[in-house]
Specification:
294 residues; alpha/beta; TIM Barrel; eight-stranded parallel β-barrel; 13% strand
């Protein structure tokens, strides 16, 4: 039996049963297919695609149109998982109309919800999108689109004052109608402090165990991210990058040594036809080629 599509109601029911939601990024059809088959609850098409897929230095350089290519690929694959699309930098901040149009394009492309970074300062945009009928996830803590203001990849919410500010931002998102919030790179105690005080679904990436579900970047989990960033909170479950590089190197050696393709990789034809073709090759071969191969 095919598993039913995950909805906001499904996610709320998981929380009510004290069950953790499994949340992972995917940016292409094969990865999303494997994640969906594995039974993950949620897939984030993150603006992290800028770095994981396009080799850009940060999430700031990816465009809405580029994100839509990844979103369409993932939503074709996700028969079960709830798909969240990450609104890229400046695709929602300028105005309510911009936010609604950008989010609407994601929903039209198959997303179940959109995600945007920030708390109180984006609450108006969140309300506009929610009023347009779009499910919105907030994102607090380490918000990569604001790295310039945060001073780089730094843990957030390390003091009571900082935890209280995160709570105020989460409450602003809740009042604006967001259904959930993602907390990134905050201490476990801070994440628990926020989760206990809001009715939102609270997910974490590097936010400890006391949240409603865990998000990881698939490239970090699989070991195929090409770059220098290696967050402390990542657990690697495979070493795909090393395996891919090894396979390519073996392929290159076989090609250069003439070991590939072998007879087992070639299409067979009737022996009589093969003889006729070989004879025709000998009659029509260019004189220079004939001299070289003689």
């Amino acid at each position: 039996m095919t598993a039913r599509k995950v909805t906001v109601a499904t996610l709320s029911a998981l929380k009510a049963r004290h069950e953790k939601a499994v949340f992972i990024t995917a940016y292409d059809y094969p990865t999303a297919t494997f994640a969906d088959r594995a039974g993950v609850d949620m897939i984030l098409v993150g603006d992290s695609a800028a770095m994981t897929m396009l080799g850009l230095p940060s999430t700031l350089q990816i465009s809405l149109d580029e994100m839509l290519v990844f979103i369409r690929a993932v939503t074709r694959a996700a028969k079960h998982a709830f798909v969240v699309g990450d609104l890229p930098f400046l695709s929602y901040q300028p105005s309510d109309e911009t936010a609604i149009r950008s989010a609407g394009a994601f929903i039209a492309a198959g997303c179940d919800a959109v995600k945007c970074e920030g708390g109180s300062r984006v609450a108006r945009r969140v309300r506009a999108m929610v009023d347009a009928g779009i499910a919105v996830m907030g994102h607090l803590g380490l918000t990569p689109q604001s790295l310039g203001q945060l001073g780089g990849y730094r843990v957030q919410g390390k003091s009571l004052a900082a935890a209280e500010q995160l709570l105020r931002d989460a409450e602003a998102l809740e009042r604006a109608g967001a259904f959930s919030v993602l907390l990134e790179a905050v201490p476990a105690e801070t994440a628990a402090f926020v989760r206990e005080r809001v009715d939102l679904l609270v997910y974490g990436i590097g936010a400890g165990p006391e949240v409603d579900g865990q998000l990881v970047i698939s490239h970090d989990l699989l070991g195929n991210f090409v770059g220098e960033i290696a967050p402390k909170f990542v657990k690697r479950y495979a070493d795909v990058g090393a395996n891919v590089e090894r396979a390519f190197a073996e392929y290159a050696r076989d090609v250069r040594a003439g070991a590939f393709p072998g007879p087992e990789h070639c299409y067979q034809i009737d022996a009589a036809d093969e003889a006729l073709i070989r004879a025709a090759r000998q009659r029509t071969v260019h004189p220079v080629v004939a001299a070289v191969t003689a």
